[in-house]
């Protein structure tokens, strides 16, 4: 299980570096799908089965539609790929930052991994289920803030993918 979790965490970091360094929306959306899949694997490995289902269904079902729509409107004749020189240089810079942060946090005391269902006091309930109950009981305001943030993200992505004279809000 340790090897599987290490593979999922490594894939998560590599996917996030690919998302951060990729200027093309086509390959950025593909990298986001990979990151979501590895994040799902990490959450399943640490005992958050409901959270992983929510991540996989909501993120891929909702946000990927926005990225697919904005990628369709941002038609580039020659998009930058992951193997092109500028993207490769920025990926190496991001990997350098990841390695530096790893070395910086390597000697920190009290930093350890903890699986959700390991403790004796957690035998009665699961951490992700308690969080869902708390979200539905006291999280109405936060739900509205999340909906507003998603709407703002949609408008920002549509504005960023706007060309010189064409935009996301044009008549097709």
TrEMBL record:
InterPro entries found in the cross-reference section: ComplexI_Subunit6, NADH_UbQ/plastoQ_OxRdtase_su6
Superkingdom of origin organism: Eukaryota
Keywords: Electron transport, Membrane, Mitochondrion, NAD, Respiratory chain, Signal, Translocase, Transmembrane, Transmembrane helix, Transport, Ubiquinone
Residue stretches spanning the membrane: 44-75, 87-114, 134-158
Annotated EC: 7.1.1.2
Heme as UniProt keyword: no
Signal sequence annotation: 1-15
Subcellular location(s) of the protein: Mitochondrion membrane
Any one Gene Ontology cellular component term annotated for this protein: mitochondrial membrane
Catalysis performed (reactions): a ubiquinone + NADH + 5 H(+)(in) = a ubiquinol + NAD(+) + 4 H(+)(out)
Membrane topology recorded in Swiss-Prot or TrEMBL: Multi-pass membrane protein
GO molecular function annotation: NADH dehydrogenase (ubiquinone) activity
Family the entry assigns: Belongs to the complex I subunit 6 family.
The protein's role, per its UniProt record: Core subunit of the mitochondrial membrane respiratory chain NADH dehydrogenase (Complex I) which catalyzes electron transfer from NADH through the respiratory chain, using ubiquinone as an electron acceptor. Essential for the catalytic activity and assembly of complex I.
Name listed for the protein in its UniProt record: NADH-ubiquinone oxidoreductase chain 6
């Amino acid at each position: 299980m340790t090897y599987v979790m290490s593979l999922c965490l490594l894939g998560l970091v590599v996917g996030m570096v690919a998302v951060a360094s990729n200027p093309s929306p086509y390959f950025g959306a593909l990298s986001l799908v990979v990151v979501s899949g590895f994040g799902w694997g990490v959450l399943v490995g640490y005992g958050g089965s409901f959270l992983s289902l929510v991540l996989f269904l909501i993120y891929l079902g909702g946000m990927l539609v926005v990225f697919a729509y904005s990628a369709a409107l941002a038609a580039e004749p020659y998009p930058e790929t992951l193997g092109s020189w500028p993207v490769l240089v920025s990926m190496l810079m991001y990997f350098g930052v990841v390695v530096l942060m790893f070395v910086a946090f390597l000697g920190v005391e009290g930093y350890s991994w903890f699986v959700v269902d390991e403790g004796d006091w957690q035998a009665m309930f699961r951490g992700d289920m308690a969080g869902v109950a708390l979200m539905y009981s006291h999280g109405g305001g936060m739900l509205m803030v999340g909906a507003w943030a998603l709407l703002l993200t949609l408008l920002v992505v549509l504005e960023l993918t706007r060309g010189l004279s064409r935009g996301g809000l044009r008549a097709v």
